[in-house]
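Hello, quick one for you while I still have it in my head. A protein chain has come my way and I'm curious about its shape. I'm sending you its amino acid sequence along with the backbone structure tokens. I'd be grateful if you could look everything over and explain what you see. Here's the protein in full, and shout if anything looks odd to you:
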Amino acid sequence: MSELPTERTRTAHRERRDALSWLLLALGGLVVAALAVQLDARLGTASAPFLGRYKIRVGPATVLAPAVAVAVLWLTSQGRLATRSWKHIQLFGYVAGLAWAITLALVDGWSGLTKTLGSPEEYLGDVSRVGDDPLGYIRHFTADAAYHSVASRGHPPGPVLFLWALERIGVDNHIFLGFLITAVSALTVPLVLSAVRDSVGEEAARRYLPVLTLAPYAIWVAVSLDGLVAALGAAAIVAGLRASRRRVRGRPAMGWALLAGLLIGLAALFSYSAPWLGLSLVCVYFARRRAFLNVASGVGALLPILGAQVLGFAWTEGLVAAETDYASRVAPYRSVLWWSAISVVVLLLATGPALYASARKVRNTAAWPFLVGAGAAVVFSIAAGLARGGVEHAWLPFFPWLTVAAVAAEKPAGELPPTPPLLVGVGAVLAILVEATLVTPW
């Protein structure tokens, strides 16, 4: 009987140590960001490490996000989620994740859901260019890149065409449209939970739920179409896991693998960085000794890209155009040296202390393929000098996978620790503070 309290004490001590280690790293990073601002470094913003400006905003809606966080943590501490069916767990994760993102956005009032849509620098400003000729828009997308909004220049035509299609079916109210985009983006939560369950077991997925639903990066879920990319990428990984299950063979396996590739290819029409999630699929297939499934997923990923090319949009040419625009419009005015360091600070703040625990235990989890794909995308972005502000929303498709090892055992095949309430709570408080003090351009 004496061993149980001892183990609980050790777990609590490790959790406090992870939280303190993360805090020291985050504070050190904030000092670096403040130093860059004081030295008038070429940052393109006075609110480093983020883009935007600082302004304290407190109102009646400010209490909504803390109420959601307290409810999730209380239900977790009372063990209310341990006895629910898996379907109920997924539904709760979706509702809680959606509520967390929406209530954080509502700190700014209804504009929290609409300011992105009304910005002339965002995708909605280009919808009128599509008009009645979407095929013409696709054909001339790369050639007309200089006339697009800032957001569209750095992305394939998928986001604009998505908004155009919604407008065509009558979804033109900005509040409803903002809620709809957030609701679709929040599907990432149950999808990631399914992936964790498939790779490391249901118990680990249940314990990961609060970490995922109360993540600090939810601040940007309600204001970025990159959340749609996150949902598509998560669905692709779930399909790849289904394809590589031990009992799934033959046509069903190839069908799931093909679907996984199709989803990655579709995500690539929304974001040039989405294919990095395909690396997670590759790692999953090799880890499960189903390498041949890479062929089906590879073919599936090419189909949307080739389909777009038949319609007139060459993905590789669009990527080159985006890089050329970035090199002329952004790179000369934002220091690659400073932003390389500051982007790491954003990563620490957006994922919270769960990132530190996950990085420390990555070797102890079978979910390591997820961290490889997401981690490679982040490392490449920084190494290539592309991370020069705005990564808080550009990296949304990768953030959820970087913290999956936060609930991993302390050693391989060891006993799973409980949900880390301190890490979750600190991350939630951080999100509330950032949302109350930072006004983003999105």
Summary: Strands lie at 53-54, 438-439. The first strand starts at residue 53 and ends at 54.
